[in-house]
Amino acid sequence: MEIAQILASKAIVPCAKVTCKRQLLQLAAERASEVVGLDAHQIFETLKEREQLGSTGLGDGIAIPHGKLKGLDGVHCILIRLEHGIEFEAVDDKPVDLAFVLLAPQGSGADHLKALSRIARLTRTPGLMERLRKMQSAEDIHEFLTREAEETNAA
């Protein structure tokens, strides 16, 4: 599963000003609602319930909040780059400033796991997240991520 298949330019928030996990999840739900056409409250509740099971903060400033929803047509990613890191109960206790929010249809076990795996691999690419953190526009971020993902797969 490629980033270009699940991340649209309109699904990227390049400089979010949130101060806590709840605000981040609310912003993600609002943007996801615009992208996928589902109710923002339903999306927020799904993300919140998943976070209550355990933080999706991977470390190094990165989190991958995720959930499954009825009515989705496929896997979607919402990328939020924060102006300032926030407490997220990440495994390394460092603030999170990049959130790759994944939403998948209910019953999409394999596709959901492939997307999670793909994002996790991408975040571990040396230097990639540092470069991403410097970008200011959604279009630049989208072009960069889709190009880098292709190059990472080709290697």
Automatic annotation (TrEMBL):
UniProt entry tagged with the keyword Transport: no
CDD domains registered for this protein in UniProt: PTS_IIA_fru (cd00211)
InterPro entries the record matches: PTrfase/Anion_transptr, PTS_EIIA_type-2_dom, PTS_SugarTrans_NitroReg
Pfam families: PTS_EIIA_2
KW Transferase (keyword) present: yes
Segments forming domain PTS EIIA type-2: 5-148
Annotated TM spans: none
GO molecular function, one term: protein kinase activator activity
Keywords: Transferase
Top-rank taxon: Bacteria
Protein name per UniProt: Protein-N(Pi)-phosphohistidine--sugar phosphotransferase
Source species of the chain: Maritalea myrionectae
